UniProtKB/TrEMBL annotation, chain A:
UniProt-recorded name of the protein: Aldehyde dehydrogenase
Family designation: Belongs to the aldehyde dehydrogenase family.
Active site: residue positions: E220, C254
Domain Aldehyde dehydrogenase span(s) in chain numbering: 24-436
A GO cellular component entry from the record: cytoplasm
Pfam families linked: Aldedh (PF00171)
GO molecular function, one term: 3-chloroallyl aldehyde dehydrogenase activity
Alphabetized PROSITE patterns for the sequence: ALDEHYDE_DEHYDR_CYS (PS00070)
Automatic annotation (TrEMBL), chain B:
Domain Aldehyde dehydrogenase: 10-422
GO cellular component: cytoplasm
Organism (species): Cyprinus carpio
Family matches, as InterPro entries: Ald_DH/histidinol_DH (IPR016161), Ald_DH_C (IPR016163), Ald_DH_CS_CYS (IPR016160), Ald_DH_CS_GLU (IPR029510), Ald_DH_N (IPR016162), Aldehyde_DH_dom (IPR015590), Aldehyde_DH_NAD(P) (IPR012394)
One biological process term in Gene Ontology: aldehyde metabolic process
GO MF terms held by the record: 3-chloroallyl aldehyde dehydrogenase activity; aldehyde dehydrogenase (NAD+) activity
SUPFAM superfamilies: ALDH-like
Residue numbers annotated as active site: E208, C242
Family: Belongs to the aldehyde dehydrogenase family.
Protein name from the UniProt record: Aldehyde dehydrogenase
Length: 483, 485
């Protein structure tokens, strides 16, 4: 064991593991649909057999309430597994594409092929979900995979290291444990795709490491997700949804509404409903509620308290904290300026700053001055307001009149843009992310005489024929018999 | 200066000028006019750059660009429209769709072998997707670069699309700026540098790189036809095509026949003296000429081999009995040398291919379906054409791009539009149906949890009666509201 308590042999074992997985991939064992389905079904069993242990690990790492653990770590993953199992056969089929006249007699299709050995790096805030949801896509697409869970969520890391080899093929999938040093070593190796969830600064290092081998990457990063509340609205419902989305997992979600932009009137009307909702969710003393999470580490707790201390805003709700239990009460801060400490970094905690603006234009301008966020929320009963915000801003994903839930829909791709990331996954998108789309054309041996048009010696009339044949397309040419 | 260019473009982009489809169509129309009105100038520039024949220019560059423009003009409304997706019970009454949006300012770095297509085809997609763009044509095809810099501002909105010319220092300066996407066509070595530069700003990239595209000729095939097609694809543009068949793999028994057929075809295409044929190009410059010529060193010349440095001319050359360790098999040839490597059957050919980096294209000639099936199933490459070469490039419904060392990302037709757009996931909800939401709010009860799980499922949604489910969802929600404490 090294000083940090990690098994050192794992460092040297990385090369061995990689070799084993490469060998397995080269043997073609992951190609048949039957193999992939078996692995996905095994993943399902992993969840079914170990629900209690999973909930316990979540609780140990983040004091995650059972409710949240079930919804955001178990259900969402199990749903995606089912989705993949029921659709895999059709996803794997080659898709035939339309051809032009010159290629009418040929078969043109796109094959989805596995990339090889992929690396999936997880994060600590949803430690199971953020590593296993990408794995579904990787398995479905026929790859082998190395999982590198976050060392900060130790109980989950330990659980994964124990359960994955027990349920999934040890030839094809492996869990590597360790911290920053081990991850750095891991990244020196060559992968066929790297999937990373985490912070922007680490993402840059990952991209640099990937550039050495020309490895494609998917980056699921963060940022400050703005929540614009404007115009006519159902205050009570808005407050409930906002509070739920913000304080879920004690604010430690990459798509949590980071801050609110609204007029002073809206703020004043909203605050009592926020108070009321917090009480109905967590009771009069949230610290006693079994349904509120805690901050993941002392370091993060310190960081959040520091932000609160430095902030020049006014705390109108909450503000209490307890270092021993890493507890911070659901807190709302008003009169927050652009320059405030709370506005300089992604909060990632149960602190909600409310900034006041005088017009929708001002709010949109504010949002556009900043980096593109992972999610953007607009609360309003007026569809005009929602549309304006949608049209004039940019973000990874967008949800109106609710928070977070857009990521539970398997039909929607989940990912960032600009500083909030690149690439996406969930549902079929995960399968596509981990596949290579190979364009294939099967030419006929016949009609070599037509090919003559393209051969030298070149002449003008051949060119006009070719021009016509390559531009003429599907609709309306179905019956053409020139060929 | 480069920073000013990019900042200026970003400001104009943010003003929203390129959002309306009408504007994008206008720009595409202007680009089309540029090509048709200046076709002769373009042909002249390419003749000076590569000794490219005028018909070759149209065939290999202009037709593809024009097709892409016409396609984008007619399909743009469809491409840019919101794309609805599958819902679950929870979202039965919501609007759920993917909204394609422009990324911002895109950098397109071109290359010298098809200087117009390699820059303008990506540009068509960039414009269609609503982006602003900086074009950096290759300085090696200097006449084309100069012409592009002169013509583009005469036709396109110069505040949204700009050409920056220059060499390595200018490119490096450009790469220091922040773009919303970088589209690079060129070598793997420089591809790594581009990706490294992009990493600093977390910029996504599309890399269209190269590699050695293998061409397997099975003994069961029409060798004469196969060789005609291979000869065409290999020696067009003097072998300087990223998807040219780089080398041939075949069984020893058919090697001589292949050489014979290629010889016949070369005679037909370029006559007895390719040097004087108006249809045969030249190597781009003396540096590449020297590089390509040196690759012939250890090899046995079966056909051709002549060269003339003053003209950067290398004759169409076929090399036989080439061994895997020869220098010619260590790098992408990118010239008119066609090595033949003999293998004992399909399995060995597949092994040979898989021992190397994944190529941009792979070719297999066979009348035997099982051979083709195995080749496709057991190898990987950017794209494939079976029983011909290059042609998968011409079908714009096929995504064109590499994998592994040959690149990442894809384009052509709608794929360019998609590659240069952000696919924003949108969920439009109303405040209604709050009863449904109750299931997910704390405090936790067993009943709440059961209901929350039920509504999250989408397995039940695969039947088409979404309305039925919506009604049921409504009823359940009303029931829920009454039950929940």
């Amino acid at each position: 064991l090294n000083g940090r308590g990690f098994v050192v042999w794992e460092l040297f074992a990385i090369c061995e593991v990689l070799e084993r997985l490469r060998g397995a991939f080269r043997s073609g064992v992951t190609l048949p649909v039957h193999f992939r389905l078996t692995q996905l079904e095994a993943m399902m069993s992993l969840f079914e057999d170990n629900e209690t242990q999973i909930i316990e690990a979540m609780h140990e790492d983040l004091a995650k309430p059972k409710f949240e653990a079930v919804l955001s770590e178990i259900e969402i993953v199990v749903n995606d597994i089912c989705y993949a199992i029921s659709n895999l056969q059709s996803w794997m089929q080659p898709t035939y594409v339309a051809t032009n006249l010159a290629t009418k007699l040929d078969d043109c299709f796109v094959r989805r092929e596995p990339l090889g050995v992929v690396l999936i790096i997880g994060a600590w805030n949803y430690p199971l979900h953020l590593i296993l949801l990408p794995l579904i896509g990787a398995i479905a697409a026929g790859n082998c995979a190395i999982l590198k869970p976050s060392e900060i969520s130790r109980a989950t890391e330990k659980l994964l290291a124990e359960l994955i080899p027990k349920y999934l093929s040890q030839e094809c999938y492996a869990v590597i444990r360790g911290g920053a040093e081990e991850t750095k070593t891991l990244l020196e190796n060559r992968f066929d795709h790297i999937f990373y969830t985490g912070s922007q600064s680490v993402a840059r290092c990952i991209l640099l490491a990937a550039a050495v081998h020309l490895t494609p990457v998917t980056l699921e990063l963060g940022g400050k997700c703005p929540c614009l509340i404007y115009g006519r609205l159902d205050m009570k419902a808005a407050a409930k949804r906002l509070v739920w989305a913000k304080f879920f997992n004690a604010g430690q979600s990459c798509v949590a509404p980071d801050y609110v932009l609204c007029t002073a009137e809206t703020r004043d009307a909203l605050l009592p409903f926020i108070k009321e909702t917090l009480e109905s969710f967590y009771g009069s003393d949230p610290q006693q509620s079994p349904d509120l999470g805690r901050i993941v580490t002392d370091r993060h707790w310190d960081r959040l308290l520091e932000l609160l201390k430095k902030s020049e805003g006014k705390i109108v709700i909450g503000g209490e904290s307890d270092k021993k239990t890493k507890y911070i009460a659901p807190t709302v801060v008003v009169d927050v300026m652009e320059s405030d400490a709370l506005m300089q970094e992604e909060i990632f905690g149960p602190i909600l700053p409310i900034l006041t603006i005088k017009s929708l234009d001002e709010a949109i301008y504010f949002v556009n001055e900043r980096e593109k966020p992972l999610a953007l929320y607009a609360f309003s009963d007026e569809s005009q307001v929602v549309n304006t915000v949608l049209e004039r801003t940019c973000s990874g994903g967008f949800c109106s009149n609710d928070g977070i839930v857009h990521m539970s829909l398997p039909g929607l791709p989940f990912g960032g843009v600009g500083a909030s990331g690149m690439g996406n996954y969930h549902g079929r998108w995960g399968f596509e992310t981990f596949s290579h789309k190979r364009g294939c054309m099967m030419r006929s041996w016949l009609l070599e005489r037509v090919n003559v048009l393209r051969y030298p010696p070149y002449n003008e009339s051949n060119l006009s024929w070719l021009r016509w044949a390559t531009t003429a397309k599907k609709k309306g040419w179905a019956g053409c018999s020139v060929m | 200066m480069e920073k000013q260019v990019v900042d200026g473009l970003r400001e104009v982009f943010q003003s929203g000028r390129s959002r309306p489809l009408q504007y994008r169509k206008q720009q595409l129309g202007a680009l089309h006019r540029l090509i048709t009105e200046h076709q002769e100038d373009i042909e002249q520039a390419l003749k000076q750059d590569l000794n490219r024949n005028t018909y070759n220019t149209s065939l290999f560059e202009l037709i593809s660009i024009e097709n892409d423009i016409k396609l984008a003009e007619s399909e743009m409304a469809d491409w840019a429209a919101p794309r609805p997706v599958k819902k679950n019970l929870n979202s039965a009454l919501d609007d759920v769709y993917i909204k394609p949006e422009p990324l911002g300012v895109v950098l397109i770095i071109g290359t010298w072998n098809y200087p117009w297509a390699m820059i303008l085809q990506p540009l068509v997609g960039a414009i269609a997707a609503g982006n602003a763009a900086v074009l950096k044509p290759s300085e090696l095809s200097e006449h084309s670069a100069r012409l592009m810099k002169e013509l583009l501002p005469l036709y396109l909105d110069k505040e949204m699309y700009q050409v920056v010319t220059g060499g390595v220092p200018e490119t490096q300066e450009l790469l220091r700026q922040r773009f919303d996407h970088i589209f690079y066509t060129g070598s793997s070595a420089v591809g790594k540098l581009v990706m490294e530069a992009a990493a600093r700003h977390l910029t996504p990239v599309t890399l269209e790189l190269g590699g050695k595209s293998p061409c397997y000729v099975d003994k069961n095939c029409d060798i004469a036809v196969a060789c005609r097609r291979i000869t065409w694809g290999k020696f067009a543009n003097c072998g300087q095509t990223c998807i040219a068949p780089d080398y041939i793999l075949c069984e020893p028994s058919i090697q001589d026949r292949i050489v014979e057929e290629i010889q016949k075809t070369l005679l037909e295409f370029y006559q007895t003296d390719p040097k004087s044929s108006p249809d045969y190009c030249r190597i781009i410059n003396t540096r590449h000429f020297d590089r390509v010529l040196a690759l012939m060193n250890e090899c046995t010349i079966a056909l051709g081999g002549e060269s003339d440095r003053s003209q950067c001319y290398i004759a169409p050359t076929v090399l036989k009995d080439v061994l895997p360790h020869f220098k010619i098999m260590q790098e992408e040839i990118f010239g008119p040398l066609l090595p033949i490597v003999t293998v004992n059957g399909l399995s060995e050919a597949i092994q040979f291919i898989n021992a190397r980096e994944k190529p941009l294209a792979l070719y297999v000639f066979s009348s035997d379906k099982t051979v083709i099936k195995r080749m496709l199933a057991e190898t990987s490459s950017g794209g494939v054409t079976v029983n011909d070469v290059l042609m998968h490039y011409t079908v714009d419904t096929l995504p064109f791009g590499g994998v592994g060392n040959s690149g990442m990302g894809r384009y052509h037709g709608k794929h360019t539009f998609d590659q240069l757009s952000h696919h924003r996931a949108c969920l439009i909800k109303s405040f209604a149906m709050e009863g449904l939401n109750d299931a997910r709010y704390p405090p936790l009860t067993a009943a709440r949890l059961r209901k929350a799980k039920f509504f999250m499922q989408h397995r039940l949604c695969s039947c088409s009666g979404i309305c039925v489910w919506a009604v049921i969802a409504n009823l359940l929600a009303i029931g829920l509201k009454d039950n929940v404490p």
